Amino acid sequence: MTTFRTGGPAERLKTADVAPYASPEARRAAGRSARREVPFASHVDLPDPADRPDPVEVLEAQATTRVPELVPIRYGRMLVSPFAFYRGAAAVMAVDLARTPSSGLTCQLCGDAHLSNFGAFASPERSLVFDINDFDETYPGPWEWDVKRLAASLAIAGRGNGFSRKNRSGVVLAAVARYRQAMSRFAGLGELDVWNARAGLDEVALLLKDQAGKAERRRLAEAQAKARTRDNLQAFRKLTALVDGRRRILADPPLIVPVDDLLPDTDRADMESQIRDLLAGYADTLPPDRRRLFRQFRFVDMARKVVGVGSVGTRCWIVLLCGRDEDDPLLLQVKEAQPSVLAPHVGGEPEIGWRSEGERVVSGQRLMQAVSDTFLGWQTVAGVDGQKRDFFVRQLRDWKGSAIVETMDPEIMRVYGALCGWTLARAHARTGDRIAIAGYLGGGDAFDRVLVEFSERYADRNEHDYQLLGDAARAGRIPVRSGI
């Protein structure tokens, strides 16, 4: 039975005990029982500052496994704003969440469910869907950890955009209320109905019809149209060119560095042979039909790419392949999968074992997303330094789009946050006991209001940690490269 930390490193809370195939009434009762043991009010509290490591030390520990020359870029991106810091500080918040009370009700977590890790992308059926789109930190754990990370991100982003306390509260309330209401609805559905629920174009319109006005719906339509232009061909035209008669990925150091520039003394034929072996091993993790599709493409070029905020410094590659001819490209992102920031804080072993961190990411993504990338897979390979590392693979772009948080007004953020809340509830309902979670949450808004207070308190702590990172930069303790 999995257990979770509560209140301090040495304290534990038993996971809510629900018998297999228990009746809906028994499962809902288990949720209510968990609420009596861990009342809503307990979720406001944060661990004492003395009961947490220095957040800068947490980030420095992460840096030890990353590409050294890219770590200053990560710090530079995190120092842009408190919200940017929050995006890169999932490990810091994991330490805090592990020292707060746990409901004992578990599911597969995103692990980094902040506002910017939701967005639109294409399903294999070529429809535009909205879902969680980052699973680097996915791991089984208490459902409320994801909800708290989302709620705090809304408060922090609202502060960054100059929202009043009242407006920030309204944004957080809308998101958490939609999570609670959606979980209640999913609790009343059958297993297949929950599994097949998704936020496609039509479903998003229905979800927002009572919340969004004409202006918000128009902006949503514009964002959807823009997302449809962000595909393989658009990336192909932007990132590649003919060089000496051969298609190559363009250099844009330090953000994009072709493999020939990284390894100038390596024989190209030997390198391509190694890459083909890598891709063949990755192909074995795809379903048979997609494996056959993938094998119609041939390797053309590869480059290291800097991505995101929190991920900067992990090894990430873009791989260019072509199918029928050069006008039939496929661009893949091959991203290093390091251990989840949640793993050290969850007692016991997960029910599902993974052969690698890459498989962990892919498994979590397939469990939580309504539909996943056609080419989602994983591989473990040895680098030029001889060190074995785990990777996961997906398309670089396939109608991908996400909201620009910094330009949102209170109404747009309220509507968008509510959509994220619904999406997170649907993901949790697929892998956790949705009936017990709904029983824990109840029918009123008491939990929603508690999360508003938690979010403001965590926003204060995040600003304090952001200042600590800035102090470390000014003192020369950490290297920083800004503006990249």
Short note summarizing the structure:
The protein has helices spanning 24-37, 55-63, 71-78, 82-88, 90-97, 143-160, 165-187, 191-196, 201-208, 214-229, 232-239, 259-262, 268-283, 288-294, 357-368, 410-431, 434-441, 446-474, and strands at 3-5, 12-13, 106-109, 118-122, 128-132, 139-142, 199-200, 240-243, 246-249, 256-258, 298-305, 316-322, 329-336, 346-347, 377-382, 388-395. The chain has 484 residues and is an alpha+beta fold.
Walk me through the topology.
Blueprint (H helix, E strand, L loop, with lengths): L2 E3 L6 E2 L10 H14 L17 H9 L7 H8 L3 H7 L1 H8 L8 E4 L8 E5 L5 E5 L6 E4 H18 L4 H23 L3 H6 L2 E2 H8 L5 H16 L2 H8 E4 L2 E4 L6 E3 H4 L5 H16 L4 H7 L3 E8 L10 E7 L6 E8 L9 E2 L9 H12 L8 E6 L5 E8 L14 H22 L2 H8 L4 H29 L10
Antiparallel strand pairs: 1-2, 1-14, 3-6, 4-5, 5-7, 8-9, 10-11, 11-12, 12-13, 13-16, 15-16
Helix pairs in contact: 1-17, 4-6, 4-18, 6-7, 6-16, 6-18, 7-16, 7-17, 7-18
- Total number of distinct structural domains: 2
Please give the largest β-sheet: 6 strands, antiparallel
* Silhouette: globular
What proportion of the residues is helical, as a percent range?
40-55%
Give the rounded overall mean pLDDT: 88
Widest β-sheet, arrangement of strands: 10-11-12-13-16-15
Rounded Rg? 22 Å
H/I helix tally: 18
Oligomer: single chain
Strand content: 15-25%
Cα separation of the termini? 45 Å
Q: Count the strands?
A: 16
Low-confidence parts = 1-14
Structural class: alpha+beta
